[in-house]
Amino acid sequence: MKALCWNGIKDLRVETVPDPTILNPRDAIVKVTMSSVCGSDLHLYNGFVPTMREGDIIGHEFMGEIVETGKDVQKLKKGDRVVIVSVIGCGECHYCNSGTWSLCDNSNPHAIMQEKVYNYSTAGIFGYSHLFGGYAGSHAQYIRVPFADNGAFVIPEDIPDEKAVFLSDALPTGYMAAEMGNIKPGDVVAVWGAGGVGQMAMQTAYLMGADKVIAIDRFDYRLQAAAKYSGAEALDYEKTDILEALKEATGGRGPDVCIDAVGMEARSTGIEQYYDKTKQVLRMESDRPAVLRQAIMACRKGGTISVVGVYAGLIDKFPMGVLMNKGLSMRGGQMHGQRYVPILMNLVQEGRLDPSFLLTHPMPLEAGPDAYAMFNDKADSCMRAVFMPNM
Amino acid sequence: MAIIYPDMYKNTGKDHTRMPKKSTYINVKTTERILSVAGGAFLLYSGLRSVGRNPVTAISKAVGGFALIARGVSGHCPVYEQIGTDGAKSEAVNIKQYFTVNKPRAEVYQFWRKLENLPLFMRHLESVEQKDEKYSHWKAKFSKNTPALSWNAAIVKERENEFIGWSSVEGSTINNAGKVEFRDAPGGRGTEVQVVFSYNMGGGGLGSGVAKLFTPLVENIIREDVRNFKQYIEAGEVPTIAGQPSGRD
After folding, report:
1. C or N: which end of chain A has fewer Cβ atoms within 10 Å?
2. Are A40 and A118 in contact (CB under 8 A)?
């Protein structure tokens, strides 16, 4: 089959590789119909996630058709049209049973590797480095899906592909960002990053009762999309003093909930950007936390910081004194999609959520390297390039 | 609850802090000391004899011979000291691991106690054959390039649903012993399992020094195999990516 393989920093190649096979009794093989790029893939693309190996197949946001099932797969059958959660969960450990699927004890084959870095191991993720299990990703014609009964959801007929594919990652991650914010009616929610995940967080924040959502980004087309599709007030951090503007927008109180949908490659303006970029390049800090610092500063007293932008390791100049003295709460995590997908499917069916505007660039898999370059450069008003590997 | 370890766990052999600072302590066994003196004397003699013909070999032989004699007479080996072993003691490698299984205690205990189950998920065990209530025969292969090892083990202590203690019987290639304990986790969180495993290769001497060099490797293998127990009993399978496609194929 054809697959998009990572071969180094900004070096992706479409290669012919063997087809996947069933390796464990609870596996299924899925013929991929759509596989989306995700902002978090750019951290792999730009070389900021350790433990990538040359030849790894990337991609983790996808849907397709079941073509084969292992002997212990019970719910799924050949021909089912399914969307698959990016994070893999066994469904039997304490964490999966508590609905915290991304903390699964049993789905990461490289648990020992993660224990050395995080002291405990978390769930495996498709196509997301060996630290997260080294599973082959979805930018391929076929993919093996472990614990398929938990992670693959049959898509109702009235949800078209261009909506369904984002139930894999962008929607559940955005939903979890809003949920962790513990939004109450009347709350103002500020979201850093108006990409796919950020905008899904904006849309779900309204569903949870937010009075106003503010989007912070620097790309005009993304801010326009946030205003148009997600009902957000848009702020360009290159043109605006964000702390001042957020006070102005909230009667001086500050946002109740601040969502970081950017993560470790955050940008800022002026000297701070040079400081973090230099330290990151020199490997003195692995992640650039400009958004996190600003969110902590911007948040109202007693408010909540919700982190879904991906961080991998260490950050520097963390304003702990601000967090402590302002009495902030901070939560983060990879999403627990197995818990959210049924809720989100209903919301999509009812027309209360519509992620389809994210699909700006449908493309063949062969265009993979160009698609990533475009997505990385935020060229051609790209929200998400989505591959159709079997077209 | 405090864990009472049997005596076999007490000699960790890892406590180098108590070693005398001056490198003169005895770390070579008596037989090895006698052989050292004899071998050293032979080298010294043959070295001195050939000085005229081949001075370089001769001098190295003589120096080596002298070092061996010194090692034998003093009972101290600087090489053993460098590789961190003590040939006078047989050095054990100890591994401890703790995890919680989301299953009732009796079920977890029974699954472990049926020793034939272990090779289902402990990938480096080829087979375990239960001879009777007490004795069992084990076969393991730690890597492709090393021969399979086999040994007989006995259950030395057990209490149903609480603990199982085992030990290899005399004359095994790998002396090993261990204990696994089962306790109820609080708040219905399943069963806390604690595994203590101790082994040494060939009972001391250079064997244990070599084993020690491979300790991180073997330790990882054993830890993975123990983790596989939890994965298998909870999820019904051990996660893997072995055999999946990549651009490396």
Report:
1. C
2. no
Domains along the sequence of chain A with CATH: 2-169+335-387 (3.90.180.10), 173-332 (3.40.50.720)
Q: Do B240 and A23 touch (CB under 8 A)?
A: yes
* Chain B residue with the nearest C-alpha to that of A134: B241
The whole-angstrom distance between B41's CA and the closest CA on chain A is 50
For A29-53, the pLDDT digits (tens) are 999 999 999 999 999 999 998 899 9
Residue ranges per structural domain of chain B = 24-82, 93-235
Tell me how far apart the alpha carbons of residues B199 and B207 are, in angstroms, rounded to a whole number.
12
CATH class for the domain made up of B93-235: alpha beta
Strand partners for A153: A83
* SS3 assignment, position A135: coil
Q: For residue B1, with 0-12 CB atoms within 10 Å meaning exposed, 13-18 middle and 19 or more buried, which class applies?
A: exposed
CA A337, A342, A348, A353 torsion-angle sign: negative
- Give CA A290 to chain center in angstroms: 18
- Burial of A23: CB neighbours in 10 Å, binned 0-12, 13-18, 19+: middle
**B176 by DSSP, 3-state: which?**
strand
Do residue A105 and residue B190 have CB atoms under 8 angstroms apart?
no
